[in-house]
Amino acid sequence: MQIKKILWPTDLSGRAKHALSYVRSLIEKYDAEIHVLYVVNDLAHHRGLYGNFEQSHIEKIIEWENRKANERLDIICTKELEGCPLYVKHVDIGDPAQRILKHIEKEKIDMVVLATRGTGGHFQLGGVAEKVVRHSPVPVVMVPTTGEGIEMN
User: Fold this and answer.
1) CB count, 10 Å around CB of 36?
2) 96-112 CB burial, b ≥16 within 10 A, e <16
3) Residue environment code for 56-65, b if the CB has 16+ CB neighbours within 10 A, otherwise e
4) What is the pLDDT of residues 4-50, one digit of tens each?
5) Which CATH number fits domain 5-143: 3.40.50.620, 3.90.1170.50, 3.90.830.10, 3.30.950.10?
6) Which residues contact 58 (CB under 8 A, 6 or more apart)?
7) Where are the beta strands (DSSP E) in the chain?
8) Which of 8, 120, 21 is nearest to 73 (CA)?
9) Where are the domains of the chain?
10) What is the number of other CB atoms lying within 10 angstroms of the CB of residue 144?
């Protein structure tokens, strides 16, 4: 099996950081490039939950989250993945599981490394992780998370 591209989807939570040691190990073993993906949840699809905001307000929130995600991904990629031969960061908008599956196809990813649950997870296997495992065309390494996780800068 040849692994050239690994995808690490992260919600930037401490739980997601549990996968980093596996990501680093696999990158070293296969001399692979790492694609780090953060998905901004599309608030337009959840208007009823967040109130009746104007579209311009929703766009400002998404723009702010996009900017903050890029800043945090820069820090993670520089600090946590500094020894990697190549890393590519992606920030996308939409349903996290759907966007992860699209990135697998679009970027021709060979393997996904994913924490079993993120910020919203109350069960051992979160909804995003379950959907990715169920529908992924490539191997998915599931990294168990315990407790609240560790701080991610």
Assistant:
1) 22
2) bbebbbebbeeeebbbb
3) eebeeebeeb
4) 999 999 888 887 888 888 998 898 899 899 999 999 877 655 555 55
5) 3.40.50.620
6) 43, 44, 47
7) 5-9, 33-40, 87-93, 111-115, 140-143
8) 8
9) 5-143
10) 12
